[in-house]
DNA sequence: AACCATCTTGGGCACTCGCCCAAGGCGAGC
DNA sequence: GCTCGCCTTGGGCGAGTGCCCAAGATGGTT
């Protein structure tokens, strides 16, 4: 019944990844250290560099993993929407769950920023961003929204921008901005 | 002709603030240290804590000063626009000057992030954000754009989001997104 | 039982960190 | 000339950093 060494090893890896996500959010990407990671994961400090090449590599894997999970939720959620108004409602509801200072918001902005300085991370994040846009664009195209690709780009950026601004101004809720954002769905010309 | 001690002191302060802006951009907010600041400013390390209470205070003053300057350029620039299309053109032109990895973009995102963890900084940044929005909203109201306040909010957030996304995907230029963004200017109903 | 791969431990190395402070200019005002 | 106030110097303190590594534990394979 007792797990094998390899299984325990994988468990430690997972605990370190979880701890990394927590700590990026709490302290900021650059302030996550070997020893704090180990302590949070309940593990000896030496294990960090046994399971990962570097702290940077651990943070990268943790952050991209979390973003991948979040991105995977978008497609199925969108599939439930029948009209553009419904889709916007879904996006706004998810926006309202991000206050700009909650874990997921901070993780995203921290990772965007880290990606601006790390080409390898940037490539991964760019891929996730394109994937998110593609899912949104596909839905828009199926529901006859004009310029689906560009519209998806603008919507995605607006959402990330709004999340960032909400940290400064919490009055920016989905309810308030829905009427304006709805305009981008309407026919061009 | 030789400057007084007080004048030289003010000059050192200024050099430290300039160095701080450069280093926040190059290394990231949390990675700017006393000694690197002093070296970049061409000044002895001890002067950092003579002229400022802490490194954090120096970074805060440097970043908010730079943002204040940038925000002050918006009003006059907007005044030159006669139609919503022209105003959007101006905003898009300024967007194109920010690649997402240029100094100003990184400084803004770094500061937003630092503000999420520092209530004092957050208050200052929030004030600047509201000021920017108010200027944009005032212009929109004068030119009969519906929901000027909310529209300004969405536009401002979209621009910041687009800047952040451009670091990952440089193909997002003003030209491409102008047609979609133009929709938010049109009459509601 | 012996061996082996794998994981784990905890301390060590060389370095940097923020902040402090005694000591030393140095020009302005008396 | 002398004192006063401001600015400046450079070293030092305790703590924290990433990464390394010799040594030990554990459990499956031969």
Point out poorly predicted stretches of chain A: none
CATH architecture of the largest domain in chain A: Orthogonal Bundle
User: What is the residue-mean pLDDT of chain A, rounded to a whole number?
Assistant: 92
DSSP helical segment count of chain A: 9
Q: Can you tell me the CATH topology of the largest domain in chain A?
A: Tetracycline Repressor, domain 2
Class by SSE composition of chain A: mainly alpha
Counting structural domains of chain A, the number is 2
Rg calculated over all Cα atoms of chain A: 19 Å
Share of residues in helices of chain A: over 70%
N-end to C-end Cα span of chain A: 68 Å
Principal-axis shape of chain A equals: elongated
Percentage of residues in strands of chain A:
under 5%
- Main beta-sheet strand count, sense and barrel state of chain A: none
Pair of chains with the largest interface and how many residues each contributes: A-B, 46 and 46 residues
Organism (chains A, B): Labedaea rhizosphaerae
GO molecular function, one term (chains A, B): transcription cis-regulatory region binding
InterPro entries (chains A, B): Homeodomain-like_sf (IPR009057), HTH-type_TetR-like_transc_reg (IPR050109), HTH_TetR (IPR001647), Tet_transcr_reg_TetR-rel_C_sf (IPR036271), TetR_C_31 (IPR041583)
Protein name (chains A, B): TetR family transcriptional regulator
